[in-house]
Here is the input.
Amino acid sequence: EAQVTQNPRYLITVTGKKLTVTCSQNMNHEYMSWYRQDPGLGLRQIYYSMNVEVTDKGDVPEGYKVSRKEKRNFPLILESPSPNQTSLYFCASSLIRQGKREQFFGPGTRLTVL
Amino acid sequence: KQEVTQIPAALSVPEGENLVLNCSFTDSAIYNLQWFRQDPGKGLTSLLLIQSSQREQTSGRLNASLDKSSGRSTLYIAASQPGDSATYLCAVRGDSSYKLIFGSGTRLLVRP
Here is the structure.
């Protein structure tokens, strides 16, 4: 089944404790992206990647890192989480070279930073 | 800067009613527009994607239209059911970017 998976789905952590949210897709998509969703602010892009080893900042990159060492994986790293990073996080992917370039989203990771 | 607006913010209708959700965007230079459904605390499910060259797309009871020149899209839901209750989001992708710009959503409640 074609899908985007994220782990963990729920995470409660404390300020300053490094964490990684994993994202994986099995559709051979070149493009991958991270969004966060906050009440009243909607979905905003954090980082994106056009292909392996090619990443760039989105609209709200502060406090986040990403890497793209393999085509299927795009982990989101919070080196020193803070309470303002409490949010619902979504990973997305799509084709670039061909097709409709429809974006597919993962199930979301609800992160709480205390 | 692209801005996406969805009206109304919330809608409550009785079961069986046909309804229209509206989405407007400020920059007509879009590559495509996607409609998503989001259930509370859950992920986004893609409902329909309309390419910039298309006028409408249909899937079952759903029909989405696009008028690029006026910066508008509508999602028509026929014969609504309680299971349609969710938040509906529209998102546009610009010509030169893969980033999706989302509207704030319409929260739909279909009453039995």
